[in-house]
Write a structure and sequence with these properties.
Elements: E1 9-18, H1 24-34, E2 43-48, E3 54-63, H2 64-77, H3 80-88, H4 90-93, E4 99-105, H5 106-110, E5 121-128, H6 135-143
Antiparallel strand pairs: 1-3, 1-5, 2-3, 4-5
């Protein structure tokens, strides 16, 4: 599959947190690098952590065209082995509603490395249209993009 039908992806949500020990500007720069090409604004929310430490959450929601553009670029940044790992463990990364959940290692992204990771991640939720068929098949075809 060389391209993805624009109607296949409904939306994308990107989110992460900046701990009190992190520079919020650096976190936002990493998010902008991840979402390069879609010129997206991230909403900041200031909350208090369990030990009364300040935490900043960053979130963005991309709809329609921006979502497809981001998702296609994102999946092409994943290594072949990471795609195979997601497909192999698809039940851990998707739900029956047609959502794909992927986590990118935020600390490695600071160093310019793009890699999946569960520790201190940037969370990405890609929502696929239910009108494009079986969600699992659609997600698998998406992960096989060249």
């Amino acid at each position: 599959m060389s391209s993805l039908d624009k109607s296949s992806i409904h939306s994308v949500e990107i989110s992460t947190i900046a701990h009190a020990t992190e520079d919020p500007g650096r976190v936002e720069s990493a998010l902008r690098e991840l979402a390069s090409g879609v010129n997206q604004q991230f909403t900041r929310r200031y909350i208090e952590g369990h030990h009364h430490n300040p935490i900043i959450t960053f979130q963005a929601k991309l709809d329609s065209g921006k979502a497809t553009e981001f998702a296609t670029s994102f999946i092409r940044q994943l290594s072949g082995s990471e795609r195979v790992r997601i497909i192999r463990d698809l039940a851990l990364h998707c739900d029956a509603e047609g959502n794909l959940y992927v986590r990118v290692d935020k600390q490695k992204l600071f160093r310019g490395e793009f890699q999946l990771g569960d520790d201190d991640p940037i969370r990405i939720k890609i929502k696929f249209s239910r009108l494009t068929g079986n969600p699992t098949d659609t997600i698998t075809r998406f992960l096989e993009l060249e």
